[in-house]
Each structure stands twice: as structure tokens, then as C-alpha cells.
Amino acid sequence: VTPREEEPQIVVPVADIYVSFPGHSAREVEQLVSTRLEKYLFQIDGVEYVYSRSLPGKSIVTVRFFVGQEREKSLVKLRKWLDQNADRIPAGVTGYVVKPVETDDVPILTLTFTSPHEDDYSLRRIAEEVLDRLQSVTDAGITSIIGGRPRQILVRPDPEAMAAFRVTPLDIHRALSGADVNFQAGEFSRMDRQLRVEAGRFLSSKQDVESLVVGVSADKTGSTGSSDRPVYLKDVAQVTDGPGEVTSYVRFSAGPAWTHRKEAGAAGQWIGGASGSPEPPVSQPAVTIAIAKQKGTNNVRVAQDILARMETIQKEVVPDDVQVAITRNYGITANAKVNELVEGLVVGVVVVIALLTMGLGFTESLVVAVAVPCVFGLTLAVNALFGFSINRVTLFALTVSLGLLVDDPIVDVENIHRHFEMMGSATRDIVLEAVNEVRPPLIAATIAVMISFLPLFFVTEEMHDYLRPMAVNVPVTMFMSHIK
Hints:
Number of helices: 14
Order of helices and strands: EHEEHEEHEEHHEEHEEHEEEEHEHHHHHH
Largest sheet: 6 strands, antiparallel
Strand content: 15-25%
Number of strands: 16
Structural class: alpha+beta
Helix content: 40-55%
Distance between the termini: 23 Å
Shape: elongated
């Protein structure tokens, strides 16, 4: 039931502020916007770092709070500060957007589309269709596409034609902005029916764009009159509907480690069968889709659901000459780490049974063998109540607990066995007497171990979230072991 994850849920409140400052160079944006916002945002209580990136016409300012700060309160403080200091924002800023950043935004699964025959434009069109269908998977989070040229309608103005028809770039911009609009113009009632009126329509094709009127051409004498004719966008610009501008490149090639993966399926596997798809001998164009998960969900289950859905989509959408490779699967690695703990638990139980069987007997060793999984089960139940997932940090805490939890059962069983041999019989009263004999020192030892780990719960700042699972798991494990 407990979610399995690759990384621990470390709370680091971070937010990106995208500021629009059109008409200014990167240097002007840095001097007028980025530098000022850095100085002001650093005054917010709990802020540890402030970064900024200045680009032509916009600025990206990243605000990072101290680790352990409550995320909701930190974002509220950030938003409140921006509202209270709106008068300090330089004139010319047309708007800003605050986008929080979370650890769950990191993709748990990446799929790479590649083909020896298709170009990056075709691969991206396929990936876009696949990504739309993968959105229906339960608990799937943020998705993105990396690589490939997207489909765009590009307008490439012709300077000579624009000069001949006396059309400026601003005229083209106004025509495009004004035409791609649709809004409610009103409504009226007739014959017991209420009708809504819409004005305008969105541009939906290359022909719609080419037919936009961007100006008026006067007659040869230069005067306006009946001989004037409209100037269309196709007269002063080349309009294309197809591959857009390149923003990122992705290349794929199966390297030497492709067939020597440590964890099958984590990376280096074709969807639809590893043996059915050839390995590309050289680097070729590719497109990668990245899928994250929602907060508090199980890496393993979400990744399995996505891959199961992908196998169905591949048969419906993906052409036969396009291969899909798994280039990241945190569900496999997270599950492998949990299985490694289970394997260590089984080995530990077997070793304890073997040692106790040689020293005390097989029946006595079963008591400890049963106590170990029971104690771990109760500890994981407490983990679920605290909201912990099974990840690297909690697994480390449980591994530390593995060597401690068998102490109490071994001491109890050993003393009971000793009393059985001394009395020459095995009764309930003898068991109670043997347990009561060692109970005070066991209680003292258990409390001493619990107290020694509890201070880790009060460590602050960055190490708090790393040490908190150990501060909870070890005392709880010792307490459950003592009760058992």
C-alpha cells in the first residue's frame, strides 16, 4: 500500500516568476527588472536563494526557500509580497506569472521515438498523438515533449514586396492579432429560442492566414479611390504550414551498455519486445516524451499503467518502422530497491533461524523468524500514517532497524530456553517467569536506543527531511519489537 518512489519527498519550496518586459534588450531587462526583483524578493522571510535569467523582452526569477519550509505558506508569502509591492515593479512590465516547482515534476518515465526512415517532424507528430492518449492514465502528472520540430504556420515577410505595397511589420502583426479572435457579440430571443451571436473566428488553416488583409494598395497616381485593392498577406509574405523552427535536438543510438543493463526495463529496452526491434547502429533523429506522476502516488504502479497503455497505443498509432525505447523508468529502479530490502530481510531471517537452530533449537528460532516481518509490517503502517513513502531514505532507516529489532526476541527466547532446561519442563508460568526476569533490562535498553535516535527528529533545515524517517523508524521498530 505504501507508495514506492525513487527519490525522497524533500520539501524545497521553489517558484519561478516569469516577467514580461517587451521591447527591451537582455541588458536592459537585467538592470530594470531582474536586479531589482532579486533585491526585493530576498527580503521575504524564509528565502534562501534568488536566481535570475534575463532574456530579450522577459526575465525569469527563481525564488528558493529554506528546506523544510511549508510549501503553501511560502507561496502565499511570495504572492502576497508581489501584490503589496506592485508599485515597485518597473513601468513597462506587462505581466508576470508565478509557477511553483515541485520534486514530483521530475519525470519518472521517458520514452524515445526513433526511426531510420522518419524525420524529426514526423516523429514529433507521432509523439504528440501518443502523449494526448497517455494523459488518460490514472495518476499521470506533468508531461512534455523534447526534440523534433513542431507543426507551425510560419509567416516569412518579403522586405521588397512589403516596400512595394507600403506594408510594415506592425501592419502584419495587427492583422494576425486582430483576425485570430472569437468572442461573444451578444444574444437575442426569437420564437421561444435564445440565440447567441459570435463575432470572428480563429485562424485554422494556411489559406485563412494567406487571405488576411494587411493593407490597401493605391492606384498608380497615389490617390485612393475605386481602383484601390486590398493587399493580402500572401502578397507580402511566404506562408508555410509544416515543420516549425528548431528549438531542441534529440539523437538516439544504442550504446555498448544497451544489452548489458543492470535492471531490465529501467533503461535500454524496446516497447513491444526487445528482440523484435533492431538496434540502431548509428545516431539517428529521435523525440522523447517525459511523464511525471502525481504527488503521493506509487512510482511502480503508475509506470506499469503507462507502459501497459503505451503497448496498446503503439499498435494503434505508431507506424511499424518507428521504434519506441524506454530510456528512463524510475518504477523499475524504485521497485528494485524495495525488493532488495525484502531480499535482505529474508536473508536476515534465514541467518537468524540457522544460528538459533544451532544454539537453541528450531522451534525457538521460529519465534524470532515470525517477529521480524510482523515488526516491519507494523513499522510500515506507522510510516503510512506519517505520510512517508518507500524510498532511499526510508529504506536506509529500515535497514538500520533490521539489526536492532531481533535483539529483544532473541534475549527472550534464549532466557525461556534456559529456564526450560533448568526446570525440566515447559509451562506457561515458566515462560512468564523467564520473560519477567529479563524484562527490566530489555525495557531500559530499548528506551535507551529510542532516546538516542529521537533527537534526529528535531534536526532543522536541509537535513531534517533526510533524518526524519530514521528518527521515526528506528524507535518505532524497537518499540514494536519490544511489544512482540
